Amino acid sequence: VGNCDNHLKNLSILYTSTWKSFRLAPAYDLVSTTRFERFSRSMGMRIGSASVIDDVSTSSILEFGSAIGVDRKDIARICAELASSVPSAIEIASETAPAFEALPYAAWDMREDMGERMRVLEEVAG
Predict the structure, then answer these.
(1) Residue 85: which domain range?
(2) Are 48 and 109 in contact (CB under 8 A)?
(3) Based on the structure, what is the number of domains in the chain?
(4) Within a 13 Å sphere around the CA of 45, how many CA atoms are in the beta-carbon half?
């Protein structure tokens, strides 16, 4: 939700054996680059017409889904899954790395930074 270094080789879709349904594969190589002011907020790939993370909107997400052949219902489901899992994932990460004393504070900064993007995901999810 803040990874401007994302690119297509980091994303995969898993289909069922019948090819009738699918889901996003577990994520890997995730770095919330928006957490660091020195990194660009230009994304490694566009989401719809948005090339800067702060410009991602409901319409750009739906435009992206349409461009890759994913219907609105499935885009809404994916956005709902992401919106519901991110807050707890941040909380768990901040609690499971006690060697990094600053991690809980970084987690709160990340939550604050991604607030508008989370709102967009929730809007798409319906």
Answers:
(1) 8-125
(2) no
(3) 1
(4) 9
